[in-house]
Design a protein that fits this description.
The protein folds into 2 domains: 45 residues; 159 residues, Glutaredoxin (3-Layer(aba) Sandwich), CATH 3.40.30. The chain is built from 7 helices and 7 strands. The protein has a 7-stranded mixed beta sheet with strand order 2-1-5-4-3-6-7, with helices on both faces. It starts with a helix and ends with a helix. InterPro entries: AhpC/TSA (IPR000866), Thioredoxin-like_sf (IPR036249), Thioredoxin_domain (IPR013766). This is Redoxin domain-containing protein.
Amino acid sequence: MKKLVLVLLLIGPMVFSQQNLQDRIYFSEALFEHLSDYNKKADLAYKHNDYEKGKQLFESFTSNKLEGSYMDNFKFKTLRKKEVQLYQFKKPVFLITYASWCIPGKGEIPALNELASQYGNQIDFVVLFWDKREKAKELSEQFSSKISVVYVDETQNQGAYVVKQLKHSLGLPTCFLLSGNKKIMDIRRSVFPSLQTSAETAYRENFIALETSITKNLINQQFEEVYAENVSLD
């Protein structure tokens, strides 16, 4: 009888964990189910030059259909050509996607570097380039050493549905704020100040927008999860 109780105690958490994993909706699944409908509505809005409507559709689509799903554990490479999986980052992740032909908004990179300096002990900052290694390495010089710069060369990518969807479905650049277990807490597009905006103002606009989202979705969320765990142990 004691052996049976011990076995149940050991396998119980495992079964519970497996059930939780089975109940998860992943980013690639949510996209597959809802992307076509979003594209039809967004294409119509942009066809009529209704950019405000397009922005509203994006925010509604990401907040209602994609946030709350879990990012797939896709692969990419470091600048040293080492293959890495997303889930190897154990902390919450701030992930932003770029490409060499997609110019970051004014003030965005300085804001990212400052945020990585302030929150790098609590969050993994990852910049993903859809590019060849040589180009990603060249562009990486703009970023702080506290930011992990990685790349996906699609000419060498042998599958990974989520990789294609990440690049082609939501446009570039796009920010994904992921909790420690890689649940998508927020999806946002970059801030693009006007060309007339001063460098300092553009930096502040980006910094405030990004820090607000980071604090709300990653820092406070992480605190709440730790607090809940401590309460349950008490």
